[in-house]
Specification:
The protein is 50% helix and 9% strand. With 455 residues, the protein is an alpha+beta fold. Helix 11 (303-323) packs antiparallel against helix 12 (326-335), helix 11 packs antiparallel against helix 14 and helix 14 runs antiparallel to helix 15.
Amino acid sequence: MNKRLKELIERIRRIKDRLNPKETNVSETGETSSSDKEPMLSNEPTRSYAPYMSSPNDWLCVHATSYEPKKNSDGEMYVETTAMATDYRSVRSTVHFTLNHVVASHAYGNWDDAGIVVLAPFNDVVEKNSKPEMVCMIDTYFEPDPDKGLVLPESTYIIRPGDNNGKLFEIGEHSATYKTDNYTKEEEEYILSCDSSDKEKFYRLLSGDVSEVEAQSALGYDKKLIDVYNKSKDKKAFMRGIFEENRFIILNKLLRDYVVKEAAGKMGFYLTYPDRGIELVEQSAKKAGFNATSYNADHYGSLEGHLEHESYYIIRLVDILKTKDVDKIIEFFSENKDEAYNGVILNIIDNKPISDVYNVYDEMYKRHVESDRMFHEKYNTISSERMQKEEKGLEVYKPNLYKTLKRHSQKINSELELSLNELKQNPENYALLQRNLRRLVAQQSQKLPAQSLER
């Protein structure tokens, strides 16, 4: 029996196991009835330990996004990396999924208003592309060829906002749509009934009666909003006002997540809470030959994560240079004393072209290889094979990341050069910038007490 037939039989078995003999009180078009019978597909994730997460056959990749997948010349759908989607202004070379649940918003990102959800069986995604860089229930990520993006298999299912002829949602064979505005009172109550904890939280938000943690989550972890909230005299009134502006976002998220559960069930997959399966996924992934972790921030500690962090400052530098504000530029260099910026400062002082931004990333990569070598020699936790690839250079070790960095650097180089040329259009201002940068370099090299810079 071939592999694809086995997986099809396994998927049919999962669908049969998931079906409940009780009749449903909600149709696949989202029409509600007054029946007291329970829905055929549970809208509650399983709260018990999740043994069905023990095989990659049971894993469903879930990708919440604001962008529609694109189609290539062969008619296949694909998901772009953030770098591709931003024309390489971003350096992020990866595509991220959660397994068998929709990503929850946290301090590093908010997906509550990400209206599109892509569902695809894990094995099918791997077969269509290659092994993921890391498997983790709450952050599985791939690093696809930036010429192709992450190609989606035929088994992909897409949930998106849409016009359902007045119905709350509609589930089709390969896609589903759901309503996002003008809810009736009955529809609002139905959405809130999908999860009693959501309903209770919704009405507490309506009254502004929330905890500090809930307030941060409701504010999308926006630092400026949180700061205003913390300083407000009447926090309840503040939250009531915010809630009125965002109530549809909350309702849309609840309905979106409910439709995701229904669609996953139609595909033959269970959804669950990540804490019920995260360790099991790690063990099963390693057994199947994948890199795996149960640590929820692996990407941030990876080479890709460190490069993204560095790119944040480089892009900030470009944006600050565009302001042509000498005070802001000096302030930036004063606060960010990384050696990576020394070349930029000296080139401005000497009126020379900016060096290739890729050199900054290349230096970081060399430090990464050196660090790995030390770990390999001391703890033997990094394989000799990986070390050999790393030492041959990024182009060999991670060719897709290398392509992305090269394209990103080319774009940023152009923006830097353009910004500096615009600054030079005002010779007096540029000369002022050069004098202040010379003083800044002198202060930093001689470690003299900070002197007031020329304004």
